[in-house]
Amino acid sequence: MLNRRALLGAGLLAGVPAGASACTAGSPPPRSFDPADWASVRSQFTLDPAYGQFAAFVLAPAPAQVREAIRTHRDALDADPEYTPPGGPSGRSPDQAVREAAARYLGAEPDAIALTDSTTMGLALLYSGLVLRPGQDVLTTEHDFLATHEGLRLLAGRTGAKVRRVRLYDDPARASADRMVSAIKDGLGPRTRVVAVTWVHSSTGVRVPVRAIADMLAEANRGRAAHDRALLCVDGVHGFGAMADGVADLGCDFLASGTHKWLFGPRGTGIVWGRAWDAVAPIVPSFSQAAFAAWQNGGSPGATTAELVTPGGYKAFEHRWAMPQAFAFMTAIGKDRVRARTQELATRLKAGLAEIPHITLATPQAPDLSAGLVCCSVAGMEPFEAVERLRERKVIASVTPYNLSLLRFGTSIVTGPEQVDQAVKAVEGLK
After folding, report:
1. Which helix (H) or strand (E) holds 193?
2. Pairing relationship of beta strands 137-141 and 163-166 according to DSSP bridges
3. Of the chain's two ends, which shows fewer C-beta atoms within 10 Å, N or C?
4. Mean local confidence (pLDDT), 234-241
5. Cα(first)–Cα(last) distance of the chain, in Å?
6. What tens digit of pLDDT does each residue of 383-402 get?
7. How far apart are CA 349 and CA 41, in angstroms?
8. What is the arrangement of strands in the sheet containing 398-399, beginning at the earlier edge strand?
9. What CATH number was assigned to the domain covering residues 335-428?
């Protein structure tokens, strides 16, 4: 049998220690929340209302409900280091409760979800753990972020697998779904095992047609042996929470995302959903019950599962255990309403920026090829200078971390039409 401390480290205990409720008594309740009222949604955040907040996705603030959950767990852990939150009637573990909340949001099964600290960690677990056979190769694009490119470079260094890149567009503002799908199709080889793409490019704001790529790969995989099937792996962080698609809508094999960006969840949290975990080997010891039992009995925990891929060790549990409140908050607003709001504001912003002579948009105008990111360049001005000058005008933007840097805005549930108009007017003054 596992002792109590080992179970705590594994995140398996479901009981509440005596006195746990007392240590959290007196915590202020969340403010009144009307999910149908955008002003009420915005009021759940402590963001300075004087600023147009277009960089909230970088390391997102949490709404009142999430902050309160974090505070409750933190205070309880400070009062009793062996505290764990209630597990419910089934006695499920706190981590399982998180998986169930994520699964409901994604339209998935809880056992398909690994818990991580970020998108980068999720991609690292995936690309370092993928089992490649001799001669199999990897296909990605020129537009992906460091987390994907570096993860695949390290994979190639360990396995000798060839990693190839294709270009999905030359001018992002003129990107097309057909060309992006064709570029992936043309880049496939007979032994391509991994196709690594990003749902929404943080460099340009282009939204990749993941479903169309998945459908194309389904045709390409016909007749391939199971161990030779091309697996579609997606960095989903700038779509997850901003768009409404679940995993069935996307059709991919793996989806990695932090939950501390567009979902506005606790910082230092993330997930990887997968439907082909048998193709992955765990690379960090798990603290799952199966792992502990196998270790104590001198055996192997068996076939790979999402739980076995979830890294063990002690975490910032007050943040992990508050993840269900983030999923509940966004679900209460409505995934479709969040998507519509995000894209309506992005469309308004793009239309305003397009009218400014010294601004060149990089993000497509079409909503089906973009999400909440809007990227542009300012004639005669470096992006970092633009960000500094915009802050002086009460508009907070960011810079894309790529060789070709752009000025970047993110419309979301914490911005509104008036902030968009404020941003357009501020950018117009960048001369």
Report:
1. strand 192-198
2. parallel
3. N
4. 98
5. 69
6. 999 999 999 999 999 999 99
7. 20
8. 359-361, 373-378, 407-410, 398-399
9. 3.90.1150.10
Q: Any idea what DSSP says for residue 377?
A: E
State how far the Cα of 148 lies from the Cα of 124, in Å rounded to an integer: 8
| AA letter at 8 | L
- Are the C-beta atoms of residues 235 and 198 closer than 8 Å to each other? yes
Task: Calculate Rg over the CA atoms of the chain.
Answer: 22
Q: Are 31 and 68 in contact (CB under 8 A)?
A: no
- In which element (H, E) is residue 392 found? helix 383-392
Other Cβ atoms within 10 Å of 320 Cβ, number: 24
pLDDT in tens, 35-71: 999 999 999 999 999 999 999 999 889 999 999 999 9
Tokens of 131: 């089992």
Question: Given its phi and psi angles, is residue 178 left (phi above 0), alpha (psi -120 to 50 degrees) or beta?
Answer: alpha
CA 291 to chain centre: 27
SS3 content of the chain, % helix, strand, coil (to 5): 40, 15, 45
Answer whether 311's CB lies under 8 Å from 317's CB.
no
Q: Where are the domains of the chain?
A: 94-330, 335-428
Q: Find all residues with CB under 8 Å of 269, minimum gap 6, and list them.
A: 115, 116, 117, 118, 258, 259, 260, 319, 320, 323
**In which residue are the tokens 């391939």 written?**
224
- If one counts every other C-beta atom within 10 angstroms of the C-beta of residue 223, the result is 7
Cross-strand pairs, 196:
233
**pTM greater than 0.85:** yes
pLDDT of residue 247: 97
Amino acid at site 288: S
Domain 94-330, what fold?
Answer: Aspartate Aminotransferase; domain 2 (3.40.640)
Cα within 13 Å of Cα(137), Cβ side: 12
Q: Is residue 31 very low, low, confident or very high in pLDDT (cuts 50, 70, 90)?
A: low
- Can you tell me the distance from the alpha carbon of 224 to that of 229, in angstroms, rounded to the nearest whole number? 6
